[in-house]
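Form 7-S
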Amino acid sequence: MPLDRRMLDELGIGSVEELFSDIPEEVRTDGIPLPPGKSEMEVVRYMQELLSANLTAESAPCFLGGGVYHHFIPSAVGTIVSRSELATSYTPYQAEISQGMLQSLFEYQSYIAELTAMDAVNSSNYDWATALGEAATMCHRILPKRTFLVPEAMCWDKRSVLGNYVSGAALNVVGYCYDPFTGGLDLDDLRSKMTPDVCGIYAEVPNLFGVIDPQVPKLKQEFPDVPLVVGVNPLSLALVRPPGEYGADIVIGEGQPLGLPMNVGGPSLGLFACRMEHVRKMPGRLIGMTRDREGRRAFCMTLQTREQHIRRSKATSNICTNEALLAVAVSVYLGIVGGKGLRAIARLNMRNAAALMERVDELEGFDSPVFEGAHFNEFVVRTPVRPAKLNRLLLRRGIIGGLPLQRHVPRMEDHMLLTATEATSAQAMDRLLAALREVAQ
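Output:
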C-alpha cells in the first residue's frame, strides 16, 4: 500500500482534501506560483544580486546605535563558536554529557559577574527588553507591590515588551522624567512618583541619550528599601563604576556589544545578574561548579526549580530557554580581548564619540550635544532637518545615519542619536560631516 494511502487510513480520512476541510473556500489558494527550479550557480548569483542592494555597516559608515552597535569582532570568535560541539548544544539538560558547554556558560557567568560586580548571573535571556520584563516581575517577587518605575526616556521596544511581561502580574509601569539640561534622571520627579506601592526602580547607565548619569549611583542610598534595577551597556563597564558597587539589586543589559554582530537586529543576548540574597527569585538558567563523586571539578545546572518545565505555575519565568551560543560567543570575545583590551576598546569608543560630538557642533544649524555631562559612545544632536528625512538624504550618499528619537521620546521630533565606536574611522567621520554640511544647506 502506498505510504500516502497508509497515512490517510491512519488518520481516518479518505483524501488529502479532508485535511483542509476546516479552511473556508474563500481563503484558499490554487497553489503558490513558484518559478522554475534553478541550478546552484544561478541561485548563488541571484542571491548575490539581491544582497548587493543592501547598505551594511561593513560597506558604509554607520552612526546608528540605541542598543545595537557596529563593533569590530575578532575572526576567532566566529571560528570557535561555529565548532559543532558548541553550535549544536542548544540546551545542556544532560549535565553529565555537556561538561564543555556547561563550563563555557559558567565562564560567561563569571565574566559578567566581574563586569557588573554582582554575585550571580543567569545564562541567559533573549535580549535587553525581555531581561527588563523579567526584572520587573522579579522586583514584584522581592517586594510584592504593584508599581514599577522606569525612565520616560527609554527605547519604545523595551517599554512595549515590559508592558507585555507585567500584564499578567497586574503591575503598573510609571515613567519618571529626565532633566532637560543634563539628560539624566530628574530626582525630584522620581521622588514625587515614589509612592508606598512601588516595587522597583529601573534606571540606565548610559541612558538612551548616551549620558552617564551621576544620579543613578545615589538611588540606593535615597531609596534603600526599594529594589534597584540598573540597565547597562556592558562595554561601558570597562570604564564606568559597576552597579554592584553602588547597591544595585538587579543588573540587566544587552550583550551584543561584546562580540556579537548586528544581524539586522538579532538574535542578541540579554544580560541578567542579581545579588545573592535574591538568587532564588531570579529567572532563567544558572550553571554552578561542584565536584563529582571522584572529587574532580565538574559543572551542573543548579536552582532549576525556577524554570517552568520543572516548577510549572510556581516558576519564576514562563520562558524555559536561553541564548547559549551567543553567551559562549561573549565568553570567547572577552577571553580574546582581556581586561586591558576591553578598557582600550571602551576608551576608543568614548574618544571617538567625543571627537564626533565636537565636530558636529561646529556645523551651522546643528546643536551637539544637547545634554551636558559625560557621554559614553553616543550623544543627542538637534538637527535643522527632520531626522527621518536627514537619514534618507544620508543613505543616498552611502551613509547610515543616526537614530531618530521621536518614536522613543515623542517630543524630541528634531533630535537624533549619533553613535561612534572603535570601528568608526576618521574617514567615516569626514564623510558624515561633509554630508551633513551639504544636506543642511
